[in-house]
Amino acid sequence: MSPQKKCKQCAKEFEVTDFDLNFFKKISPTFDPPASAGPEALRAGGKTFEVPAPTLCYECRLQRRLMRRNERALYKRKCDHCQKDVVSVFAENSGIKVHCNKCWWSDKWNPLDYGIEYDEDKPFFEQFNELYKKVPQLGLMNDEGTGSENCEYCQDFAYGKNCYFMTGCWRSENSMYCHESDRSKYVVDSDLTIDSEICYECMSSSNLYNCFYVNMSDASRDCILSYDLKGCSNCIECYGLRNKSYFIKNQQSTKEEFEKRKAEILKTRASIEKARVEFDEWCKNKPRRFANMVNCENCTGNVMRNCKNSYAYSTYNAVDCRYFNNGDSPISCLDVFQSGKPQMSYEGVTPDECYLALFTVWCWKCRNVLYSENCHNSDDLFGCTALKHGKYCILNKQYTKEEYEQLVAKIITNMQRDGEWGEFFPISISPFGYNEAMARDFFPLSKEDALKLGAKWQDTDYSSFNGTFYEPKETIEEYIGNEEEQKKLLAGAIKCRVTSKPFRIIPQELAFYMEHKLPIPTICFDQRFENRLARRYKLKLYAGKCMNEAPSFAGTTDGKCPNTFTTIYGPQDKEIVYCADCYEKSMI
Q1: Cα–Cα distance between 81 and 376 in angstroms, integer?
Q2: Residue 375, H or E segment
Q3: Are residues 567 and 519 in the same domain?
Q4: Tens-place pLDDT, residues 297-332
Q5: How many folded domains does the chain comprise?
Q6: Are residues 308 and 348 in the same domain?
């Protein structure tokens, strides 16, 4: 039986599985020990420092990791090197030094110049935090100038071109305001929309073309306001269709009827909102799949595609992973958030293309890296930040291989003594306030409760605006051919009708709306993201049973399908939930 533990933060009991324990053994590092370790370890040529079982439950571990990640609270400030204006995730009052992308990636400075000596009388996390505040950090985490082009306002972004305000994305072009939408072109305001082109307000889908307000769909084109389509085209307000064309509310229609309904929905901002509300109401009586999985084997979680032997959320192509959130092609990882192609990584935030990255943040293309942040193309690091092509470094100081291994062994031994080894960076040393970090999205807290947790809070409101707000026109036709009104829109600030925060429309965004006959949004990007997140992300799972009452189940105890599963729908939800087989058989 797997051992039960009590979370030291929330006191909830949680399970440590055999998978977890075996994984910890595999990733436990071996280093030459200090002389105090004893003759047996010395004769063996090294000591293995076992990674202990976690002391926090899954949710509290995720909350702690998300305190190191800010995606959408962006600020204007100066580059501390060239003094040019820069957009950064670090506010001026954060105490963090910032370089623009051009300066940071250049050879004009050396992060090793900021290195500090390890002090065995001080806790390791205290020393790392001291180093982190000294070393200049990237204003935004992207590869502008080294892999991406004209994408300098994107956070957690790589290998893109002409993108704006994209977060957690790579290999995308001409896209805006998306989260986790990889390998896509001309995609706007969409989440986890993969390998797609010309999409707006789409979620958890792949291989879409020219689709608006489409969710959980695949290989479909020219569809509007639909859910779970596969191989469909020219469908409006449809649910669960397979290989259909010209359907409205799951009924066959003509091309003329389709075009008429499309024009009605997209006519004004109000008509779109009305249609969305009506579609949600119409879908309430439709059966739901117990979890959104496509081509998955032996998996638990939600919004998964092409995965095997994994427990994950919003993840593609995962193999042998557990507690993996938001990523593409991870292999043998545990407790990782938002990453592409990591392997054998644990307690990480975005260890992209890393191998054996343990307790790391923003480390890309690294191997054997521990307790480090924002390091790239580096191997064998411990407690480092902002290194490029580093090797055998500790707290940004260079060592030989032998010196490195002996000192790391001493540091881990002291961390074991202080209760730090095996723990991720504590919430108290996050550079972000709770209301800036991604923890707010998944675990919303009041300022009072966040401070009790040890977090900081960003009290300065950098979004204040004293000018006159511009009121967007109800229809996009009022802008097409009207250059004067276009200039007013682009020069003005719009007041978000939910948060009251100001936001602007940029030229390429307006061009997209005009080309595809979409109205100007009146809700800011941050709130639009939160609205989508609430529609697609459920972290808690429940034991469930299929609710299908087909005649073939008349002989069962309750007249329903006997299949059971782990599901995102709990007792408090009103959805009709089916197992995979029953769900697919109910589709048309």
Answers
A1: 20
A2: none
A3: no
A4: 999 999 999 999 999 999 999 999 999 999 999 999
A5: 5
A6: yes
